[in-house]
Structures are given as structure tokens and as C-alpha cells.
Design brief:
The chain is mainly alpha-helical and 105 residues long. The protein has one domain (2-75). 38% of the residues lie in helices and 6% in strands. It is built from four helices and two strands. The chain has helices at 16-23, 26-32, 39-58, 65-69; strands at 2-4, 9-11. The protein has a two-stranded antiparallel sheet with strand order 1-2. Strand 1 (2-4) and strand 2 (9-11) form a beta hairpin. Helix 1 packs across helix 3. The longest helix is centred in the middle third of the chain and has 20 residues, at 39-58. The protein is elongated. The two termini are 27 Å apart.
């Protein structure tokens, strides 16, 4: 559970291995390559499976696919040394939550 600045709450975040497990899906691969009869239905099915896998992995019931998409640790920076909330991006030079400047070292 780490702070998500978009949700303004502590949320379960996915590491790279977990994200691959949650998002990997043959239906999505087929959708991207145009090998599905109904793209709309395929996308809805993929969203539902992602939400189900996220809940199974984290124990948190999410209903918004966009939230799951941005709950990936690789999108965030290191924890702030002052307030411990994640920096908004890996390149962030200061913490948007408390204003603490990140050292360049």
C-alpha cells in the first residue's frame, strides 16, 4: 500500500512482475493485432479480467481500469525522504506532496 497522488489515498501498487501478470492476456494481444470479431466486446472482457486479477492479487476491489493502469510502481519515483510518499515520476526533482527537494546524488 503506497500513496497514489491521483487517487489521493494509499493504494496497492504493482511491481513489474505483478503488472505483467495482471495485464497479460491473449484477448488483448488479439485485440491489438485486429484478430477479434468484436473489438468493443474484447476490450470489455479484457478490462473485466484485469480488474479481477488485480483484486485477486491485491485484495482490493477496483472498478476503474484506469486506476489499475496507473497503480504500477514503474510509473512513480522513489519514496520522498521526508514524507515517504512516492514521487510522481522517476524524474521528479521534488516531492509534490510536501515540497522536499530530491538530492541529485
Amino acid at each position: 500500500m503506497l500513496w497514489c497522488w491521483r487517487c489521493k489515498a494509499e493504494m496497492p501498487m504493482l511491481d513489474e512482475v505483478e503488472a505483467k501478470a495482471v495485464f497479460a492476456d491473449r484477448v488483448f494481444s488479439d485485440l491489438l493485432q485486429g484478430r477479434t470479431a468484436s473489438p468493443v466486446l474484447a476490450k470489455q472482457q479484457w478490462h473485466q479480467r484485469v480488474l479481477e486479477r488485480y483484486e485477486k492479487l491485491t485484495g482490493f476491489k477496483e472498478t476503474n481500469i484506469n486506476a489499475v493502469c496507473h497503480h504500477q510502481l514503474s510509473l512513480y519515483g522513489e519514496p520522498c525522504r521526508k514524507c515517504k510518499k512516492l514521487l510522481r515520476t522517476p524524474q521528479a526533482r521534488f516531492c509534490a506532496a510536501c515540497g522536499f527537494r530530491r538530492s541529485d546524488s
